[in-house]
Design brief:
Family: Belongs to the TlyA family.
Strand order of the largest sheet: 10-9-8-11-12-14-13
Distance between the termini: 129 Å
CATH superfamily of the largest domain: Vaccinia Virus protein VP39
Structural class: alpha/beta
CATH architecture of the largest domain: 3-Layer(aba) Sandwich
Order of helices and strands: EEHHHEHHEEEEHEHEHEEHEHEE
Number of helices: 10
CATH topology of the largest domain: Rossmann fold
Strand content: 15-25%
Helix content: 25-40%
Number of domains: 3
Pfam families: FtsJ (PF01728), S4 (PF01479)
Largest sheet: 7 strands, mixed
InterPro entries: RNA_MeTrfase_FtsJ_dom, S4_RNA-bd, S4_RNA-bd_sf, SAM-dependent_MTases_sf, TlyA
Number of strands: 14
Keywords: Methyltransferase, RNA-binding, Transferase
Protein name: TlyA family RNA methyltransferase
Radius of gyration: 35 Å
Length: about 325
């Protein structure tokens, strides 16, 4: 009886002498399509990499590398369309400093935030805006030596506090508060700071300014203001609680004088209560900082007759407050 053998090969394979089996037309088509796809991807990656380096390269053509025309238009690097994008970029605040349009990054940030900077004719309010050497940057002149000056200006206007003839600037730093007091009519300003060489030259050389550097406010005595009480104390101190320097500050005030002091919650609540970046985010903690300063003043026989949030936050974003103390 004839013996029939049933082949176990699938219908799309056939026996061959050199490989044992071979692909049918359908199999070859699938393999060929995969190879073509790999060629397309490889060609597109090489083209896109060259464009990303800023080289002017033609878009891939249809042909042996595959149909890349439409994909090329979608993935074409911006530098291939706009040569200006190949130029190095820098943050706007840094560009203002490097071009001499701002004294520092903080000063630049203030100019930008208050809408006094334009790039290529358009106003910009983001310090992180990227510009190139070809960008046309304009900044309105700022006559204040620091952003602290703007804070004190806002407090003086809102509270209606008179400056008087003699003023003590506690924590003078570069001299923002000192400058404002001089422009408001002060005849003598004692610029006191524990640091050295921070006051700007234009104020240091002003005959109305008495510079007291390296003086810790805890050790302040009447002799430091030439033995005569002052009409107004303004203060912006950092890295120390106001409650620790209130007594010496108030001791040099003349009868009827007042103190207009900046309360910085980040230096009042304690490090363990600070949020990310050293910012006090809890409104209750901010209020507690103000209350602590006011309570300390009351124990010394002084009262707070006005307080308000500063028109500008601290450089890290902390909300700050002014308090006015009177005897």
């Amino acid at each position: 009886m004839p013996c029939w053998t049933v082949s176990t090969f699938s219908a799309d394979r056939e026996d061959t002498s050199d490989h044992g089996h071979a692909l049918t037309d359908a199999g070859r088509t699938r393999r060929g399509a995969a190879a073509a796809g790999r060629a397309r991807c490889h060609g597109l990656r090489r083209w896109h990499h060259r464009a990303a380096r800023g080289r002017t390269v033609p878009a891939p053509r249809r042909g042996t590398a595959g149909a890349l025309g439409r994909a090329a238009e979608v993935l074409r690097h911006p530098a291939a369309r706009d040569p200006r994008r190949c130029q190095p970029t820098v943050r706007l605040d840094l560009a203002l400093v490097s071009r001499g349009l701002a004294r520092s990054r903080n000063h630049a940030a203030t100019l930008i935030r208050t809408g006094r900077v334009s790039v290529d004719g358009a106003a910009v309010t983001r310090a992180s805006r990227l510009v190139t050497d070809q960008s046309v940057i304009h900044a309105d002149a700022d006559r204040w030596v620091s952003r602290a000056a703007l804070k004190l200006l806002g407090a003086l206007e809102e509270s209606g506090t008179p400056v008087g003839a003699r003023v003590l600037d506690a924590g003078a730093s570069t001299g923002g508060f000192t400058q404002v007091c001089l422009e408001r009519g002060a005849e003598r300003v004692y610029a006191i700071d524990v640091g050295h060489d921070q006051l700007v030259p234009e104020l240091r050389s002003d005959p109305r300014v008495v510079v007291r550097e390296g003086l810790n406010l805890r050790n302040l005595v009447l002799d430091d203001v030439d033995g005569e009480p002052v009409d107004l104390v303004v203060g912006d101190v950092s890295f120390i609680s106001l409650t620790l320097v209130l007594e010496p500050l108030l001791s040099v005030l003349a009868p009827g004088g007042s103190a207009l002091l900046l309360v910085k919650p980040q230096f009042e609540v304690g490090r363990h209560l600070l949020g990310g970046g050293g910012v006090v985010r809890d409104p209750a903690l901010r209020q507690a900082a103000v209350d602590a300063v006011v309570d300390a003043a009351m124990t010394l026989g002084w009262a707070c007759d006005w307080w308000a949030e500063s028109i500008l936050p601290g450089t890290s974003g902390n909300v700050e407050f002014f308090v006015r103390l009177t005897g």
